[in-house]
Amino acid sequence: MNHDYSGNTQLWNEDLAPTTAAQRTWRWYHFAALWVGMVMCIPAYTLSASLIDSGMSGYQAVLTVFLANAIVLLPMLLIGHAGTKYGIPYAVLARASFGTMGARLPALMRAIVACGWYGIQTWFGGQMIYTLMGVLVGHELGGEKIAGLGINGSQLLCFLAFWAIQFYYILHGMESIRKLETYTAPLKILICFVLLYWVHSKAGGVASLLDQPSQFIPGGKKAGQFWSVFWPSLTAMVGFWATLALNIPDFTRFAKTQRDQVIGQSIGLPVPMGLLAMLAVIVTAGSVVMYGKAIWDPVDLASRMTGAAVLIALIILLIDTVSVNLAANLVGPAYDFSSLAPKQISYKMGGYITAFIAIVMMPWKVLESTQGYIFTWLIGYSALLGPIAGILIVDYYFVRKTQLDVKQLYRDDGVYSYGNGWNMAALIAFVIAVLPNIPGFLNAAFPTAFPGVAEGFKTIYTYAWFVGVAIAAVVYGAMMKGKAAEKVQQAPQS
Which residues, 6+ apart, have CB-to-CB distance to 136 below 8 Å? Predict the structure, then answer.
């Protein structure tokens, strides 16, 4: 069925074309394994553990994480429906609402965020190889820092080695990533139990670690401040998966049925994320008992294990980081870059571009400047991605009632070309939804440069993703009311 859409090479290539029946091989357990694989990652672990540092009790932290992932599951399932029904990736679905040219804007935004994450995760992976090599030789590798780079030669080589490991999967395509996720998911669950057993034996039980009171109770260090911590934390947690909520059609287009993608995602996202949060909370609390301080970084923690345990833990963390990075941060931008110039850029070439940007951006320098602003970064880009999600959902469900003319998505003179390929309703809705969050973002990211931002804007920014989704949905829905039916009647025959 693909070949009917190949007339316009500026909008079509084999990778962007709808999936065929033969390509739809993913069952519910593949989606569940995909999410278990993506959830069990170092940034998710450290983000969960950091809630304790913000003052939450173990139970409050776990419930916050579970709630955030239950919330973000809804747009995952809603947007994922189009991928399964029509076999199209996110970059093509966005054409229905933003226009055949305008869709490049949300595709590029999603791609840039993913490139940032891809580079950061590659750096984490390189650091694990660096730590592992240090354990094997009996001392830290060390060495003089390279001028201009700010890291030593051993760190650079380890970073490039991990980059090269991932490059194998770019060469071998989507099916190799599915297999990697399916086979490594049980391994990750096993290592979680091993970590729990280790903490239980070293810290003398885990139940008491979850029972530590929060700092928000009367007389506590942050008495009465729970909600001021809870809402930004919830928004940051939603923001953590906001990227995947947009490009989930890149995966669901390979689903055998809608039931497979719905059940697989519903099982695979909220529950494992809640369990990972519980693990992070218990292990972090256990590290205080064992080492006298909270250790948030699982790589640091693994390096403190003794004997074969340290080697096993670091190798599993390495496998984990490869599988997460490929699924969460490579597939999306590879399709997105391909959609910018389909004739010149295939899915593989899009993957090469992502991998190249990961080196050029020098992620260790990005971490130096943004590590303290992890919540600012997560909430900040959720303010951009939330409006796109709102527009896609309203367009697909309320404007088009889940009915798309797939052939028209690949034509620059069809229903979805609007005015010169741009749908102004989507652009206006996007801008209006982003604007209220800008003052709060500037204050959060650069407090000394923007100290006088009104409290109202700071409060709005606390709910950035939610505000963006709501405003964009209402504005776009109002501007597009009745237009879809009118457009379909005027559409050229395809």
Answer: 311
The residues, any chain, with a CB within 8 Å of residue 447's CB and separated by 6 or more, are none
Give the Å distances, CA to CA, from 425 to 96, 98, 408, 432, 468: 12, 8, 19, 11, 15
Task: Tell how far CA 127 is from the center of its chain.
Answer: 21
Nearest to 79 by CA among 196, 246, 214, 316: 246
Q: Do 314 and 128 form a contact (C-beta atoms < 8 A)?
A: yes
Query: Could you say which DSSP state residue 23 is in?
Result: G
Model confidence pLDDT, tens digit, residues 15-31: 889 999 999 999 999 89
Check residue 13 and report its DSSP letter: -
What pLDDT is attached to residue 100? 94
CA distance 389 to 147: 43
Are 270 and 43 within 8 A, CB to CB?
A: no
Q: Which residues pair with 26 in a beta bridge?
A: 255
Phi-psi region of 293 (alpha: psi -120 to 50; beta: other; left: phi over 0): beta
Range with the largest mean pLDDT of 50-59, 149-158, 202-211, 303-312: 149-158
Phi, psi at residue 324, to the nearest 5°? Answer: -65, -45
Compute the chain's Rg from CA coordinates. 23
The two three-digit tokens of residue 403, written as one number: 């009915």
Cα-Cα end-to-end distance for the chain? 14
DSSP designation for 358: H
Q: Which H helix or E strand runs over 71?
A: helix 58-86
HSE of 249 in the Cβ direction (CA atoms, 13 Å)?
28
Which residues, 6 or more positions from 382, have their beta carbon under 8 angstroms from its beta carbon?
235, 236, 238, 239, 242, 464, 465, 468
Q: Give CA 306 to chain center in angstroms.
A: 33
Listed range (4-8, 130-134, 255-259, 407-411) with the worst mean pLDDT:
4-8
Beta-bridge mates of residue 362:
none
Question: For residue 255, what are the β-bridge partners?
Answer: 26
CB contact at 8 A, 166 and 122: yes
Tokens representing 111 are: 């791609």
Tokens 């030789």 belong to: 137
* Confidence (pLDDT) at 277: 79
In this structure, what token pair is assigned to residue 55?
A: 């003052």
Which amino acid, 126?
G
Residue 221 has, within 13 A of its CA and on its CB side, a CA count of: 9
Asked if 441 and 376 touch (Cβ cutoff 8 Å), the reply is: yes
Answer for the pair 393, 433: CB distance below 8 angstroms, yes or no: no
Contact 146, 152 (CB under 8 A): yes
Q: Do residues 117 and 437 touch, judged by C-beta distance below 8 A?
A: no
**Rounded to 5°, angle at Cα 99 from 98 and 101:** 110
- Average pLDDT of the chain? 84
Structure letter (DSSP) for residue 397: I
Which residues face 422 on adjacent strands?
A: 419
Collapsing DSSP states into helix, strand and coil, what is residue 418?
A: coil
